[in-house]
Amino acid sequence: MIWVSLHLFRKTLCCMIAGGMSLSCVSTVANADDSQAAVRSIQSRMVKIFGAGGLRNLYSYSTGFLASPDGHIVTVWSHVLDQDRVTVILANGRKETAVVLGAEPQLDLAVLKIEREGLQLPYFDIENHTSAAPGTRVLAFSNMFKVATGDEPLSILHGVIAAKTKLTARRGAYEVPYDGPVYIIDAITNNPGAGGGLVTNTRGELLAMIGKELRNNESNTWINYAMPMSELTPVIKQIMTGDYVSQETKPDGEDNPLRYQPLDFGLLMIADVVFRTPAFIEVVDADSLAEKLKLKPGDLILFVNDNLVQSCRELRQEFGRLEAGDDLSLTIRRDNKLMTVDALVPRKVDED
Amino acid sequence: MNSRTHRITNLHLVAVIVWSGLFANNVFAIDPAVVEAQQRRVAVVNEVSPTVVAIFSASGEGGGGSGVLISADGYVLSNYHVTSGAGNFMKCGLNDGKLYDAVIVGIDPTGDVALLKMLGRDDFPVAKVGDSDALHSGDWVYAMGNPFLLATDFKPTVTYGIVSGVHRYQYPAGTILEYTDCIQTDSSINPGNSGGPLFNDAGELVGINGRGSFEKRGRVNSGAGYAISINQIMNFLGHLKSGRIVDHATLGATVASVSDGSVVVESILEESAAHRRGLREGDEIVSFAGRPIRSVNQYKNILGIYPKGWRLPLEYRRNQDKKTIQVRLRGLHAQSEIIPGQKKKPQPPGKEGAEKKAPKESEIPAQFAKIYEKKTGFANYHFNQQEQNRILGSLNHWGDYASRNGLWKVSGKDQKGNPFKIELSNEQSTLSYGGKVWKQSFDGTELTIDPPNTGGLLVALHHLRLFMTHHGFLFSEFMYLGTEPLDGLGNRVDVLTSELTSVQSRWYFNDEDQTFLGFDTQVKAGTDEAEIRFSKLKDFEGLKFPSHWVISSGGSQRVEWMIESIELSPGPKPTGKQVTSRQP
User: Fold this and answer.
1) Is B235 near chain A, with CB under 8 Å?
2) B295 → closest Cβ in A3, A5, A149
3) Cβ count within 10 A of residue B16
4) Can you give the residue ranges of every domain in chain B?
5) Distance of residue B520 Cα from the nearest chain A Cα, in angstroms
6) What dotted CATH number matches B132-236?
């Protein structure tokens, strides 16, 4: 029995060292009623989201939290939102429909809006968030594994912030675009459906949003991480007020004159089928500028005048801003080699 | 031992801190509350560790898991999916390092619970049973057991976490292993933890760990473990002690939630008790067993924690009228669905890696020969006989009924002073009451439910005479069923059941002093029962007999009788051998 207690003590000790002796578990022990009240208050402002998916390994549910009394919901940008409307279940079990108001794929962030008007819902003041040092005890709220339905409260996990660091992760074979700061947590917070859940300290103060399931770049292990609210709040606010225009969702036109298109240079790009179709050349017209520059089908255009183009859409935007007589510099990848070609933007034929 | 522990651990602490060289200045500034909380944890773990059981198959091959002792004479709770892998005879290790023999007692395949009995001591350490309904999400809990079968010295592994959710519903695997109203925790639950206890912060037993949500990370803890609530298990404990394969319940109705959040009856079986009591399609279920119903999961949760056959209050609303009825719950499964081996068993999702196929049904080892008896429908019929003997033994002080198997004459008055007279014999029952005479013959003529609205009092009284004179001997089926609350609301009572042709009876005994409290007789399936309740035991010339009877049926009381005289004549000498063989 001595062995058992020793063993336990050692385990506890490790955790305390990590905690820098500033454990708030004391307050949890001392103020059970307070933390119960904090837990209830958080639960009342969380929602369950049900949307697209349901196929193998593509779960159709996630978590979110209310950011305004009239039904703005913050969650992760994921395939669950890939349909016109998603179902949102409020803490009291009421079912609502919501649409995506805006998304920032760089942050894997989306803001939804409940369609029904005139709501007066309990919500988080997203400006009122805090930060935490490694060692801080935290609680994680999410509907992981879709354990809760209807008015049942979300699952709560407890853990300790193990580190605050930069994210280096990937999803499947792809690098994750976000490489900003994240909290790494010593509990298994990032499960199916947990994305969009919240991490708070034991006083119930807002710290971070649980991200999508990602693997560590180096070890290939799943990461339990959350993105600090300080990173998310400015974008959430912009989306809510309508001031935010994502690069990806920015509509062609309006602030983009679309003066030139790929065809003006004799380029036909591959069909733009997905959100971020890479800018591969499909066809090069005979006797065109492109042919003169020795571009070939299969080349991937990476930069237009030193601006990175991640997709056909971004290429169109870059071309759209060109004017006759501008320098045009294209960096392309062919057979794993980079090459740059330079030309002057020609006057368009119909302008004559 | 405690002070020694602390000395060692303190040295250890200093060593670690100095070695790490980082926090040396803070070492002596530990908040006393932290130290206190930690000492409390150590104390709780020390207190409950002796009750945690490591379970292995008797052969040492096959599976294993965990369990917890709940009585000094050796009753242990575990998971059905642990014992089904380990076989009917097991070895159980405690943290004293000793290995004990154990035998299966009863199983609940639907609820994934098994009761076994450890042998060789009558002073086993016992876990204190807590109240799982008092748990809140956020409460600290300890999961204990033998994950990965790590402890070859049987000292349990402790994982500490919080309650992640309460009243959770987890769908069944196939038709069995449904986790209703269960406790979700982030304490690590891994293969081998199955069957082990979940303790609350005070060291009280609140659940049996048995399942986890596992996905692509492999079958190890993913932060979501589930424990069967101890309150559910306590509802089933009497049934499990009966040595039976016990079943869960259904109302005989399906429900659906509608957009306003209420739950309504979608369809209902006409032969169900709920239908007989007036429940219809479209009625809103307001509460069930005293708990409000707000979602289909809640309805399933509540239904799932009660055994087949319990009678529970159900409140429903039709238009603006609310009505409360008592309904006896139907069985969830056909016997063949839950008897192991009768049907291909579905694999439980949380099935433990260490728990493999059951070892081949071998011969009964010598040390178990006297405490194991095989019988269809039972995990171990031996324990049913033990319970029958315990209860029937209480009738001995009523006198020698075995010899009074001739004509019975019982007479008295109802609460208004109207006389009644009963005559009972092997051939027929006669009742004269209120200027009328009813007769029921038992020569093969069809059984009636006379007098009207009594549920078949004449048949019930005939069965009372058979039961008192011959106990179970004249029935085609007779067994100890378990415990249930009398009439849905009363105290827990022990229940014996009997069957003869279409007639089924339930015999009720106080579960503390085994007083015979009354019985219900159902003449045929789908009819209301005759319900007779006894009180005021009196001496009638050497025989004890209840002098006050209340007779009800169909949810209302029909009559109240005061017995004034009884005349129970001896009949032909009974084939007493079998009868007395049922005595303890």
Assistant:
1) no
2) A149
3) 15
4) 2-47, 132-236, 251-325, 391-581
5) 39
6) 2.40.10.10
Catalytic (active site) residue B139: no
Q: What is the pLDDT of residue A182?
A: 95
Q: Which of B6, B8, B9 to probe the A interface (max A CBs under 10 A)?
A: B9
CA separation, residue B355 to residues B88, B97, B147 (Å): 14, 22, 11
Q: What is the pLDDT of residue B580?
A: 41
Contact A21 B294 (CB under 8 A): no
B112 annotated active-site = yes
Residue of B33, B167, B221 with shortest CB distance to A29: B33
Class of domain A262-351: mainly beta
Average pLDDT over all residues of chain B: 87
In chain A, what are the domain boundaries? 22-244, 262-351
Could you confirm whether domain A22-244 is CATH 3.40.50.720? no
Residues in B closer than 8 angstroms to A153, CB to CB, are 137, 165
CA distances from A303 to A166, A261, A336, B64, B417 (A): 26, 15, 15, 62, 106
| Alpha-carbon radius of gyration of chain B | 27
List, in sequence order, every residue forming a beta bridge with A292; answer none if it has no partner. Answer: none
**Residue B62: per-residue pLDDT:** 67
Q: Name the residue with higher pLDDT: B348 or A233.
A: A233
| Per-residue confidence band for A43, with pLDDT thresholds at 50, 70 and 90 | very high
Contact A148 B164 (CB under 8 A): no
Q: What angle do CA B316, B318, B324 make, to 5 degrees?
A: 30
Out of B112, B181, B247, B520, the active site residue is B112
Record: contact A39-B137, CB cut-off 8 A: yes
What is the number of residues in chain B? Answer: 584
Name which CATH class applies to B391-581. Answer: mainly beta
Q: How do residues A277-305 score in pLDDT, each as one tens digit?
A: 889 998 898 888 999 999 999 999 999 98
Range scoring the smallest mean pLDDT among A76-85, A102-111, A342-351, B124-133: A342-351
Is B222 among the catalytic positions?
Answer: no
pLDDT on residue B407: 95
Sign of CA dihedral B128, B133, B138, B144: positive
pLDDT at B532: 97
Provide the ipTM: 0.81
